[in-house]
Amino acid sequence: MSEKSLRDEANHGHLVLAKALPGTSGSLALERMQKKIAAAATGGILSSPGKQNGNSRCKERETSMTSKSGEIILITRSDDFGYTHSGNLGMIDCLRFGFIKSAAILAVAPWFEEAAQMARENPDVCFGAHLGIIGEWRGYRWRPVLPWSKVSTLVDEDGFLWRWPAEFWAHNPNMDELEEEFTAQVNLVRKKGVKIDYLDTHYMMPSDERIRPIIERISKSQGLPVSGLLEEHELPDFGIYSVPPEDKEMALVRVLEQLQPGVHLLIGHPGYRSLENDALMHSDPKDVQTLGTGRLRAGEAAAYMSLRVKKVVEDRGIKLMSYREYCKPE
Question: What's the pTM?
Answer without folding.
Answer: 0.82
